[in-house]
Amino acid sequence: MAPKKENPGKIKKAPASRSGKNRLQERSLEGKTLLVTGGAGFIGSNYIHYVLKHYKNTIIINLDKLTYAGNLDNLKDVGGDPRYEFIRGDIRDKDVVAEIFQRVQGVVHFAADTHVDRSIMDAGEFVLTDVFGTFVLLEALRRTPTVEFFIHVSTDEVYGSRDKGFFSEDDPLNPSSPYSGSKAGADRLAYAYSVTYGLPIIIVRPSNNYGAYQYPEKFIPLFVTHALEGKSLPLYGKGTNVRDWLHVEDNCRAIDFVIKRGIVGEAYNIGANNEVRNIDVAKRIVNELGKSRDLIRFVPDRLGHDRRYALNCRKLRKLGWKPEVEFEAGLAATVNWYAENEWWWRKIKERSAEFKSFYDAYYKDRK
Ligand code: NAD
Ligand code: DAU
């Protein structure tokens, strides 16, 4: 898997416009070709929908390996769009990546292994995809001066947990799960490449997203679909852990703002200032569905469970972005989406061996 040695002399000098820190002109996606990695996943597919809706002349190449979390059903409605191309491939494959980089002017890098509980069971793929995969993309960026920007999608989990106050972009990273450790490695590697080689990289660190097309092993879709099936809802610990819930459409708009106005070499937190305890999210879900609270079952906690994430997003707000989806309305719409799209999640929960084997192994003492 390690890339072959290449002649460093082949690397062309970055054009001045590439690394310019104080770029005054807004970037635009219009008329550009964009590589989206991991576009068949939850946020990636929502982002592809967002770009195709808001930009008439942007071409998207979606590079996705289709792991258990990648799902072409998420993109059913854009399959015939001439502005959209799907390539099944691995971000760790440097030849595939190099070829695609020749064709694009921008990259938004979502591809990753993303589920904390799976990383606790086995961290191997997380290191290989999240760290090494990011390295392969950064090397391609280094060798392709025609790529004008690279958005590295990191996570708020890289900061670790805090009981009070808010994390700012300059705070030290202190990740506490194998997933967030891998993401922190990738985050700092992206930063190092931007400093060392003057590459046009911007990092974003979103908080917990929710919305349509989220794989039903994650908290909100798992609880909604389990409640619809009348199954018990496995709430870790006392249910008092806090997450800052960000609607996926607000996240996609934030990434758009960062592409337009973000400063190269900088990181931007993306959060909705919407902290809710897990127990309260669970109660809202059952209320929304008219189900009994007795479905909620307290189960043994996640190892090393981060208590709370909270972000200071002043830097992003200065670019002009603010969240638009209020949690109560966003959660109701999300619950409704899963209720109306049973075909989408039943296919995964009932037919996917990867869903079942993980669920049976991880929850065997938590049912
Ligand atoms: P997801 O698990 O739903 O999707 C990940 C996608 O990446 C899948 O389509 C999968 O097939 C693809 N993929 C995995 N390994 C690959 C590889 N080696 N090559 C090519 N494709 C590969 O993830 P998500 O929730 O949409 O998260 C997207 C990104 O956003 C990730 O980088 C994640 O760390 C970050 N993030 C997620 C959240 C959240 O709440 N979901 C919050 C903050 C940051
Ligand atoms: O904060 C951003 C991160 O949010 C992303 O980087 C990750 O990719 C994404 O998966 C998410 O991580 P979390 O661990 O916060 O999300 P998850 O949906 O797994 O869990 C949310 C909370 O709900 C967390 O406190 C654990 C709890 N939980 C989760 C599951 C799956 C339960 O109580 N029971 C469950 O069965």
Describe the structure.
The model is unreliable at 1-17 (pLDDT under 50). The chain has 367 residues and is of the alpha/beta class. The chain has helices at residues 16-19, 42-54, 94-101, 116-121, 124-142, 178-197, 219-228, 248-261, 278-289, 314-317, 327-340, 342-351, 353-363, and strands at residues 33-37, 59-64, 84-88, 106-109, 149-153, 201-206, 209-210, 233-236, 242-244, 246-247, 267-270, 275-277, 296-299. It has a domain at 18-214 and 245-275 and 307-326: NAD(P)-binding Rossmann-like Domain (Rossmann fold, 3-Layer(aba) Sandwich). The radius of gyration is 20 Å and the shape is globular. The chain contains 13 helices and 13 strands. The strands form four sheets. A seven-stranded parallel sheet has the order 3-2-1-4-5-6-11, with helices on both faces. A two-stranded parallel sheet has the order 7-10. It has a two-stranded parallel ribbon with strand order 8-13. 2'deoxy-thymidine-5'-diphospho-alpha-D-glucose binds next to helix 7 and strand 8.
